[in-house]
Design a protein that fits this description.
- By secondary structure, this protein is α+β, with helices and mostly antiparallel strands.
- The protein has one domain.
- It is built from 1 helix and 7 strands; from the N terminus they run αβββββββ.
- The strands form 2 sheets. The chain has a 5-stranded antiparallel sheet. Strands 1-2 form a two-stranded antiparallel sheet.
- A hairpin with a 4-residue loop joins strand 3 and strand 4.
- It is rod-shaped and about 115 Å long.
- The chain starts with 11 loop residues before the first helix and ends with a strand.
Length: about 160
Amino acid sequence: MMYKNSQQNKGYTLLFAVLVSALTLSVGISILNISKKEFLLASSARESTTAFYAADSGIECAVYYDNLGKFSITDNTFANGMTCSNSSVGTPTYTAGSPQIYTFDINRNDISCARIIIQKFAVGGPISTSIESRGYNVGETKSTNTCDKASPKKVERALYYTY
């Protein structure tokens, strides 16, 4: 009677199972890594968009009140304050000189904030206006009512408008 040596094929199934498991695990980790990067990219885009819209609403508010004549070279009083984006802005700070500078912050329900700087130039000709609006994806600091809130995820977007 002849006996075959069955010892040479032992362990092949275990080796094959380990290789398949390692390959499946590496594909799974790769997919997880890509998903994580996509999530961070989407979050970053959302925060950037929030900051951009805050800056845009700041520009729109400043242009609206400037068209009403509130940021005038001759009359710079705000009897009733300002309301922008359904929130009270209060009275902008005013700095006399050349240029005349108005500064105010808009808090959009603690979701975002915008700091607006309006400069009025009246030297040697018609009045020119420069508006800078910096939008942030975080709300205002409650104690100071300004856009100085510290956050490691704070994003800033700026818009400039001159006429």
